[in-house]
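Hi Prof. W.,

I finally got the CN hydrolase domain-containing protein prediction working! I wasn't sure whether to trim anything, so I left the full sequence exactly as given:
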Amino acid sequence: MASTYKPEQARVPPAVQLPVPPVTKFKIALCQLSATDDKERNIVHARRAIEEAAEKGAQLVLLPEIWNSPYSNDCLPVYAEDIDAGGDASPSTAMLSEAARSLQITIVGGSIPERSGDRLYNTCCVFGKDGKLKAKHRKIHLFDIDIPGKITFVESKTLSAGDNHTIVDTDVGRIGIGICHDIQFQELAMVYAARGAHLLCYPGAFEMTTGPLYWELVQRSRAADNQLYVATCSPARDAGAGYIAWGHSTLVGPFGEVLATTEHEETIIIAEIDYSQIELRRTNLPLQNQRRGDLYQLVDLQRLNS
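And this is what came out:
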C-alpha cells in the first residue's frame, strides 16, 4: 500500500539527501542582547557577547533581530548600513566579519537594517571562520499587524521584502535562514528541509501579544514538522521601548523538544547540537516515507526554474 503514496513526488524537485555535516556535535550560543539608541555601544556590546560565547566553546553564534538599532520604523532608516559596500559603510558587519575570523567561529549575525539603493531591508548576514560573508538573507515576510488595544506595527511602511531563500553550507552544517515573521510560514522551512538543512536559524523579535501565544509553538512546529534543529534568538526585553520584545531565545531539537531556553533578560545560552539525533528521529518516525505525493506537493519554484 505504501508504494502508492509516491512520497518522492511530495516535494518537487525531490528532496535532496541530507548531507554529511562537517561536525556531528558542537555548541551553539544564542546571545539575547539589549539594543540602545547608541549604535557604537550596540556594536561593542555584541562583540563582547560573541567573545564570551566563543570562550565558552561555542562554534556557532546567533545574534538577535535588529541588534544594532532600536526596533522602530523611525530608527531603521537612520541606523541602516550599506552591507555590500562594507568597511565604514557597514560597521556592524565589519565587526561580525572580524570577530568570526579572529575567533575562528561561524556567526549568524542576527539582523540589521540594510540600505540598498533607495530600498531598506531587514537583513541577516552569515560569516564563516575565515571572516568571509557566506550568505545574506533579506526578510521575506514583513510583519504587518493590527490588533486594536494590543499591538499595531507595519514593517512594510519602511522595509522592502526579500525575494530569495537562504540556505548555506558552513563549518557546522547546512543552515537555513529566516528572520522573525519568516518562521510563521511553514512552506519556507519545508523548502529548507527539502534542500538538506540540518538547522534553521531565526533571529526574531516577537512582541508581547504574539510572543506568549506562539513564539515557542511555531519553533517547535517547524522543528517537529521537518525533523531538524531550530534555533531562535530574540532581543532582550526593554519595557520602556516602543516595541517590546518577548525574549525567550530557544533551541529546539528534531522531535520538537525544547533543549534550551531562557526568560526575557540579557543572557547568553550555550547548548549542544547533536546531528546524529536527526537521523535517529527520522528513523524512529519516517515522515519522509509517509508523505502522500499522490495527494499533495510542495513545489520549490527557485530550484524548479533553475
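The chain has a mean pLDDT of 96. Does that look reasonable to you?

Thanks,
D.
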